[in-house]
């Protein structure tokens, strides 16, 4: 119970801010439709059906949130029936809220008071309604809220330090690796210095021995290892070579197990550490 109470206390500023942010967005952009605004670890977000937002828009929204908070609205929690909730939502023309209401039994309406100096809007991202790419693209605003200004400052400092140490930025600055958009997202190109650090030198320094194994093997090996059953849909088709079926591997471990099985081992051989740089 103590853990649950602590979790609720930590989430409370985030919950309050989702409501305040929705009020601020619709004050500045009257045509914006609200969808859903959950809280997540250390932050909250709200999705809006509206035109794309800019960083300048975020600053306007934050100022409007400050004004709303400064009004010192009373803290109220009102529970209404399903029919009454549907009546109110229909009156303000919020179709997404009607869809949400249809999936639940009842929904309380809440207004919260918070410390405006403990709130910060972070960035905007796109998000499809219900995660369905066939449905409207929404504007998702991320923000964070804390119980005090000092807590917010500590969080923002932590974020800056994490950004400064981000391996993606360091890799670029130190000319270790790059990710080329022309080749595809998330595909790493190791540069000269990066290849040495990431490759043989790193492996050998950490007590591993290097192996090099074939790029293809008989397809039956994948049946024995279980990979064929688990990964069949994501593997390349089999190839017919001299009356045998061969296949590209999804991973190296069956090859390494074959090397291990070639002879008996003494306890003195352990631990065995092997690694492979695949192409």
TrEMBL record:
One of its GO terms (molecular function) is threonine-tRNA ligase activity. The keyword Lipid biosynthesis does not apply. InterPro entries: aa-tRNA-synth_II/BPL/LPL (IPR045864), Thr/Ala-tRNA-synth_IIc_edit (IPR018163). It comes from Dillenia turbinata. GO terms for biological process: threonyl-tRNA aminoacylation. It comes from the Eukaryota. Coiled coil: none annotated. This is Threonyl-tRNA synthetase. Gene3D superfamilies: 3.30.54.20, Bira Bifunctional Protein, Domain 2, Threonyl-trna Synthetase, Chain A, domain 2. GO terms for cellular component: chloroplast stroma.
């Amino acid at each position: 119970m103590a853990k649950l109470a602590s979790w609720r206390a930590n989430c409370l500023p985030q919950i309050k801010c989702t409501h305040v942010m929705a009020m601020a967005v619709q004050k500045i952009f009257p045509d914006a439709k609200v969808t859903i605004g959950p809280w997540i670890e250390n932050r909250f977000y709200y999705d809006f059906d509206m035109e794309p937002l800019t960083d300048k828009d975020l600053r306007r929204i934050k100022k409007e949130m400050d004004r709303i908070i400064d009004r010192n609205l009373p803290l109220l929690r009102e529970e209404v029936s399903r029919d009454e909730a549907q009546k109110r939502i229909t009156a303000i023309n919020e179709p997404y809220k009607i869809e949400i209401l249809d999936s639940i039994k009842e929904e309380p309406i809440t207004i919260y008071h918070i410390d405006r100096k403990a709130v910060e809007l972070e960035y905007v991202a796109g998000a499809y309604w219900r995660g369905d790419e066939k449905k409207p693209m929404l504007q998702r605003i991320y923000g964070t809220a804390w119980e005090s200004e000092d807590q917010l400052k500590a969080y923002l400092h932590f974020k800056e330090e994490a950004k400064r140490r981000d391996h993606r930025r360091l890799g670029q600055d130190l000319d270790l690796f790059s990710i080329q958009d022309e080749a595809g997202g998330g595909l790493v190109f190791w540069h000269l210095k990066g290849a040495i650090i990431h490759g043989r030198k790193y492996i050998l320094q950490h007590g591993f021995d290097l192996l090099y194994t074939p790029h293809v093997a008989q397809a039956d090996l994948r049946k024995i290892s279980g990979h064929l059953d688990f990964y069949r849909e994501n593997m390349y088709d089999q190839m017919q070579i001299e009356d045998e079926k061969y296949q590209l591997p999804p991973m190296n471990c069956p090859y390494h197990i074959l090397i291990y099985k070639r002879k008996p081992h003494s306890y003195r051989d352990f631990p065995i550490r092997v690694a492979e740089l695949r192409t």
